[in-house]
Specification:
The structure is a single chain. By secondary structure, the chain is an alpha/beta fold. The chain has helices spanning about 15-25, 60, 85-105, 140-155, 180, 185-195, 235-240, 250-255, 270-275, 280-290, 295, and strands spanning about 5-10, 30-35, 50, 70-75, 110-115, 160-165, 170, 180-185, 205-210. The strands form 2 sheets. A 7-stranded parallel β-sheet has the order 3-2-1-4-5-6-9, with helices on both faces. It starts with a strand and ends in a 6-residue tail after the last helix. Keywords: NAD, Oxidoreductase.
Protein backbone atom coordinates (compact mmCIF):
# COMPACT_ATOMS: atom_id res chain seq x y z
CA UNK A 1 0.00 0.00 0.00
CA UNK A 2 1.36 3.44 -0.95
CA UNK A 3 1.86 5.71 2.04
CA UNK A 4 1.10 9.42 1.99
CA UNK A 5 4.73 10.40 2.69
CA UNK A 6 8.12 8.85 2.00
CA UNK A 7 9.70 9.87 5.29
CA UNK A 8 8.47 11.42 8.54
CA UNK A 9 10.89 12.45 11.30
CA UNK A 10 9.60 12.43 14.89
CA UNK A 11 11.70 14.14 17.57
CA UNK A 12 11.04 13.41 21.23
CA UNK A 13 9.90 9.94 20.23
CA UNK A 14 10.58 8.44 23.66
CA UNK A 15 8.59 11.05 25.58
CA UNK A 16 5.13 10.30 26.92
CA UNK A 17 3.34 11.85 23.96
CA UNK A 18 5.91 10.80 21.37
CA UNK A 19 5.33 7.18 22.32
CA UNK A 20 1.57 7.66 21.81
CA UNK A 21 1.89 8.94 18.23
CA UNK A 22 4.62 6.72 16.77
CA UNK A 23 2.19 4.18 15.30
CA UNK A 24 -0.03 6.94 13.89
CA UNK A 25 2.91 8.48 12.05
CA UNK A 26 4.31 5.14 10.89
CA UNK A 27 0.98 4.43 9.19
CA UNK A 28 1.38 7.61 7.13
CA UNK A 29 4.90 7.12 5.80
CA UNK A 30 7.12 4.61 4.09
CA UNK A 31 9.70 5.33 6.78
CA UNK A 32 9.36 6.81 10.25
CA UNK A 33 12.61 8.05 11.76
CA UNK A 34 12.17 8.33 15.51
CA UNK A 35 14.65 10.55 17.32
CA UNK A 36 15.40 11.07 20.99
CA UNK A 37 18.28 11.96 23.26
CA UNK A 38 17.36 8.85 25.25
CA UNK A 39 17.94 5.23 24.28
CA UNK A 40 15.72 3.58 21.67
CA UNK A 41 12.32 2.15 22.59
CA UNK A 42 12.32 -1.54 23.47
CA UNK A 43 10.48 -2.40 20.25
CA UNK A 44 10.43 -0.61 16.91
CA UNK A 45 7.65 -0.71 14.33
CA UNK A 46 8.25 -2.49 11.03
CA UNK A 47 8.97 0.70 9.07
CA UNK A 48 10.54 2.63 11.96
CA UNK A 49 14.21 3.39 12.49
CA UNK A 50 15.69 5.08 15.54
CA UNK A 51 18.46 7.67 15.83
CA UNK A 52 19.82 8.87 19.15
CA UNK A 53 20.49 12.59 18.73
CA UNK A 54 20.48 15.88 20.61
CA UNK A 55 18.13 18.30 18.87
CA UNK A 56 19.86 21.27 20.47
CA UNK A 57 22.82 20.58 18.14
CA UNK A 58 22.26 21.57 14.52
CA UNK A 59 24.90 19.20 13.18
CA UNK A 60 22.98 16.28 14.70
CA UNK A 61 19.62 17.42 13.32
CA UNK A 62 20.72 18.22 9.76
CA UNK A 63 21.26 14.66 8.50
CA UNK A 64 17.95 13.52 10.00
CA UNK A 65 15.96 15.76 7.68
CA UNK A 66 17.46 14.56 4.43
CA UNK A 67 14.67 13.15 2.25
CA UNK A 68 11.93 13.92 4.81
CA UNK A 69 8.56 15.32 3.82
CA UNK A 70 7.27 16.00 7.34
CA UNK A 71 8.96 16.71 10.67
CA UNK A 72 7.01 16.25 13.91
CA UNK A 73 8.83 18.13 16.65
CA UNK A 74 7.94 16.92 20.14
CA UNK A 75 11.43 17.10 21.71
CA UNK A 76 11.70 19.45 24.69
CA UNK A 77 11.83 19.64 28.46
CA UNK A 78 8.12 19.38 29.23
CA UNK A 79 8.07 21.57 32.32
CA UNK A 80 9.14 24.95 33.66
CA UNK A 81 12.85 25.29 34.39
CA UNK A 82 15.32 28.18 34.68
CA UNK A 83 15.71 29.88 31.31
CA UNK A 84 19.28 28.64 30.88
CA UNK A 85 18.10 25.02 31.22
CA UNK A 86 15.46 25.48 28.51
CA UNK A 87 17.58 27.43 26.04
CA UNK A 88 19.01 24.38 24.26
CA UNK A 89 16.22 21.79 24.51
CA UNK A 90 13.26 24.16 24.00
CA UNK A 91 14.51 27.17 22.03
CA UNK A 92 17.53 26.09 19.99
CA UNK A 93 16.05 22.69 19.16
CA UNK A 94 13.11 24.39 17.44
CA UNK A 95 15.38 26.61 15.35
CA UNK A 96 17.47 23.57 14.43
CA UNK A 97 14.44 21.55 13.28
CA UNK A 98 13.10 24.40 11.14
CA UNK A 99 16.48 25.36 9.70
CA UNK A 100 17.50 21.77 8.96
CA UNK A 101 14.07 21.14 7.49
CA UNK A 102 14.37 24.19 5.27
CA UNK A 103 17.78 23.15 3.98
CA UNK A 104 16.47 19.71 3.05
CA UNK A 105 13.11 20.79 1.60
CA UNK A 106 10.81 19.54 4.37
CA UNK A 107 7.27 20.53 3.46
CA UNK A 108 5.75 20.91 6.94
CA UNK A 109 6.60 20.81 10.64
CA UNK A 110 4.05 19.66 13.23
CA UNK A 111 5.02 21.17 16.58
CA UNK A 112 4.00 20.26 20.12
CA UNK A 113 3.18 23.75 21.35
CA UNK A 114 1.22 24.19 24.56
CA UNK A 115 -1.61 25.95 26.35
CA UNK A 116 1.18 27.69 28.27
CA UNK A 117 1.86 29.93 25.27
CA UNK A 118 -1.39 31.62 26.31
CA UNK A 119 -1.49 30.42 29.90
CA UNK A 120 -2.29 33.82 31.45
CA UNK A 121 -5.52 34.13 29.45
CA UNK A 122 -8.56 33.71 31.68
CA UNK A 123 -10.90 30.76 31.27
CA UNK A 124 -13.81 33.15 30.91
CA UNK A 125 -12.22 34.93 27.94
CA UNK A 126 -13.44 32.37 25.41
CA UNK A 127 -10.11 32.48 23.58
CA UNK A 128 -10.00 31.72 19.89
CA UNK A 129 -6.89 31.21 17.79
CA UNK A 130 -6.23 34.93 17.35
CA UNK A 131 -5.65 35.58 21.06
CA UNK A 132 -2.34 37.31 21.75
CA UNK A 133 0.52 35.32 23.23
CA UNK A 134 0.36 35.40 27.02
CA UNK A 135 2.98 32.96 28.32
CA UNK A 136 2.84 31.93 31.96
CA UNK A 137 6.44 30.68 32.29
CA UNK A 138 9.78 30.45 30.48
CA UNK A 139 8.43 27.12 29.21
CA UNK A 140 5.43 28.94 27.73
CA UNK A 141 7.77 31.59 26.30
CA UNK A 142 9.60 28.85 24.38
CA UNK A 143 6.27 27.83 22.85
CA UNK A 144 5.61 31.44 21.81
CA UNK A 145 9.10 31.63 20.28
CA UNK A 146 8.52 28.51 18.22
CA UNK A 147 5.08 29.59 17.06
CA UNK A 148 6.61 32.86 15.86
CA UNK A 149 9.49 30.94 14.31
CA UNK A 150 7.02 28.87 12.33
CA UNK A 151 5.16 31.99 11.26
CA UNK A 152 8.44 33.55 10.10
CA UNK A 153 9.53 30.51 8.09
CA UNK A 154 6.12 30.38 6.41
CA UNK A 155 6.20 34.10 5.54
CA UNK A 156 9.82 34.20 4.32
CA UNK A 157 10.52 30.63 3.17
CA UNK A 158 7.14 29.06 2.39
CA UNK A 159 7.58 26.29 4.96
CA UNK A 160 4.28 25.11 6.43
CA UNK A 161 3.73 24.37 10.11
CA UNK A 162 0.94 23.34 12.45
CA UNK A 163 1.35 24.25 16.11
CA UNK A 164 -0.63 22.05 18.51
CA UNK A 165 -1.38 23.97 21.70
CA UNK A 166 -1.63 20.82 23.79
CA UNK A 167 -3.54 21.04 27.06
CA UNK A 168 -3.72 18.24 29.69
CA UNK A 169 -2.92 15.13 27.68
CA UNK A 170 -3.38 12.06 29.86
CA UNK A 171 -5.13 8.69 29.72
CA UNK A 172 -8.00 10.01 31.86
CA UNK A 173 -8.69 13.47 33.37
CA UNK A 174 -6.55 13.92 36.47
CA UNK A 175 -8.23 16.76 38.38
CA UNK A 176 -11.07 19.28 38.27
CA UNK A 177 -9.10 21.64 35.99
CA UNK A 178 -8.96 18.86 33.40
CA UNK A 179 -12.74 19.12 32.96
CA UNK A 180 -11.77 22.11 30.82
CA UNK A 181 -8.36 21.11 29.57
CA UNK A 182 -8.26 17.34 29.00
CA UNK A 183 -6.90 15.95 25.73
CA UNK A 184 -7.32 12.19 25.39
CA UNK A 185 -4.67 10.06 23.73
CA UNK A 186 -7.13 9.10 20.99
CA UNK A 187 -7.88 12.74 20.24
CA UNK A 188 -4.15 13.56 20.25
CA UNK A 189 -3.54 10.87 17.64
CA UNK A 190 -6.46 12.16 15.57
CA UNK A 191 -5.11 15.73 15.77
CA UNK A 192 -1.64 14.66 14.67
CA UNK A 193 -3.11 12.62 11.81
CA UNK A 194 -5.16 15.59 10.58
CA UNK A 195 -2.17 17.92 10.86
CA UNK A 196 -0.05 15.61 8.71
CA UNK A 197 -2.71 14.69 6.14
CA UNK A 198 -4.18 18.18 5.55
CA UNK A 199 -3.55 19.15 1.93
CA UNK A 200 -2.33 22.64 2.83
CA UNK A 201 -1.90 24.41 6.17
CA UNK A 202 0.32 27.46 5.75
CA UNK A 203 1.03 28.63 9.29
CA UNK A 204 -1.65 27.24 11.59
CA UNK A 205 -2.26 27.13 15.32
CA UNK A 206 -4.81 24.71 16.82
CA UNK A 207 -5.80 23.95 20.39
CA UNK A 208 -5.06 20.39 21.46
CA UNK A 209 -8.10 19.78 23.62
CA UNK A 210 -10.84 17.17 23.58
CA UNK A 211 -14.55 17.81 23.06
CA UNK A 212 -15.03 18.94 26.66
CA UNK A 213 -18.26 20.68 27.60
CA UNK A 214 -16.24 23.20 29.64
CA UNK A 215 -13.39 23.86 27.18
CA UNK A 216 -12.32 27.53 27.51
CA UNK A 217 -11.13 27.86 23.90
CA UNK A 218 -12.45 27.21 20.40
CA UNK A 219 -10.89 25.92 17.20
CA UNK A 220 -13.36 27.37 14.70
CA UNK A 221 -10.60 29.09 12.71
CA UNK A 222 -8.74 25.79 12.25
CA UNK A 223 -11.81 23.83 11.15
CA UNK A 224 -10.19 23.21 7.75
CA UNK A 225 -7.87 20.69 9.41
CA UNK A 226 -10.84 18.43 10.03
CA UNK A 227 -9.98 17.88 13.69
CA UNK A 228 -13.14 16.58 15.38
CA UNK A 229 -12.38 15.34 18.90
CA UNK A 230 -14.69 12.71 20.35
CA UNK A 231 -13.82 12.38 24.03
CA UNK A 232 -15.33 14.51 26.79
CA UNK A 233 -13.97 15.01 30.31
CA UNK A 234 -17.51 15.65 31.57
CA UNK A 235 -17.90 11.89 32.03
CA UNK A 236 -15.60 12.24 35.06
CA UNK A 237 -17.22 15.40 36.48
CA UNK A 238 -19.02 13.94 39.50
CA UNK A 239 -15.94 12.22 40.89
CA UNK A 240 -13.54 15.07 40.22
CA UNK A 241 -15.74 17.87 41.52
CA UNK A 242 -16.70 16.01 44.69
CA UNK A 243 -13.35 16.82 46.30
CA UNK A 244 -12.14 19.78 44.24
CA UNK A 245 -10.77 22.87 45.93
CA UNK A 246 -13.39 25.55 46.67
CA UNK A 247 -13.86 28.09 43.91
CA UNK A 248 -11.61 31.11 44.47
CA UNK A 249 -11.77 33.93 41.91
CA UNK A 250 -8.62 35.48 43.43
CA UNK A 251 -6.59 32.36 42.55
CA UNK A 252 -5.08 32.72 39.09
CA UNK A 253 -4.37 28.99 39.06
CA UNK A 254 -8.14 28.52 38.93
CA UNK A 255 -8.93 31.52 36.75
CA UNK A 256 -6.29 31.17 34.01
CA UNK A 257 -6.09 28.44 31.38
CA UNK A 258 -2.47 27.74 32.36
CA UNK A 259 -3.60 26.47 35.76
CA UNK A 260 -0.80 26.20 38.36
CA UNK A 261 1.73 27.38 35.77
CA UNK A 262 0.06 30.80 36.06
CA UNK A 263 1.11 31.16 39.72
CA UNK A 264 4.42 29.33 40.14
CA UNK A 265 7.59 31.44 40.35
CA UNK A 266 9.54 31.63 37.10
CA UNK A 267 11.98 28.76 36.80
CA UNK A 268 10.19 26.44 39.24
CA UNK A 269 8.44 23.22 38.21
CA UNK A 270 4.79 23.51 37.22
CA UNK A 271 4.43 19.74 36.98
CA UNK A 272 5.34 19.47 40.66
CA UNK A 273 2.59 21.95 41.49
CA UNK A 274 0.05 19.91 39.54
CA UNK A 275 1.13 16.70 41.25
CA UNK A 276 0.81 18.28 44.69
CA UNK A 277 -2.89 17.52 44.75
CA UNK A 278 -4.88 17.10 47.95
CA UNK A 279 -5.16 13.42 48.86
CA UNK A 280 -8.94 13.57 48.57
CA UNK A 281 -8.78 14.96 45.04
CA UNK A 282 -6.25 12.31 44.05
CA UNK A 283 -8.56 9.65 45.47
CA UNK A 284 -11.39 11.05 43.38
CA UNK A 285 -9.15 10.85 40.32
CA UNK A 286 -8.37 7.22 41.10
CA UNK A 287 -12.07 6.46 41.50
CA UNK A 288 -12.79 8.17 38.20
CA UNK A 289 -10.57 5.67 36.42
CA UNK A 290 -12.99 2.89 37.37
CA UNK A 291 -15.46 3.63 34.61
CA UNK A 292 -18.49 1.60 33.61
CA UNK A 293 -18.15 -0.44 30.43
CA UNK A 294 -20.37 1.85 28.35
CA UNK A 295 -17.75 4.59 28.64
CA UNK A 296 -15.03 2.18 27.61
CA UNK A 297 -16.94 1.53 24.41
CA UNK A 298 -17.01 5.23 23.69
CA UNK A 299 -13.23 5.35 23.51
CA UNK A 300 -12.68 7.06 26.83
CA UNK A 301 -9.35 5.32 27.48
CA UNK A 302 -10.05 4.29 31.11
Amino acid sequence: MTKLHKKIVLTGACGNLGMEIRATLAALADTLVSVDISDAPATLLDNETFVQADCSKLDEVLPLMEGANIAVHFASIADERPFEDLLGPNFLSSYNVWEAGHRHGVQRVIYASSVHAVGMVENAAGADLDVDHAPDTFYGLAKCFTEDLGKLYWAKRGMESVHLRIFSCTKVPQNARALRTWLSFDDLRHLVDRSVTATTTGFTVVYGVSDNDRAPVNNDKAAFLGYKPKDNAENWADSLLASAAPADPSDRAQMCIGGPFATIPLGESGVAAIKAMAPAEQAATDDAKKLPSFLTKKGMNP
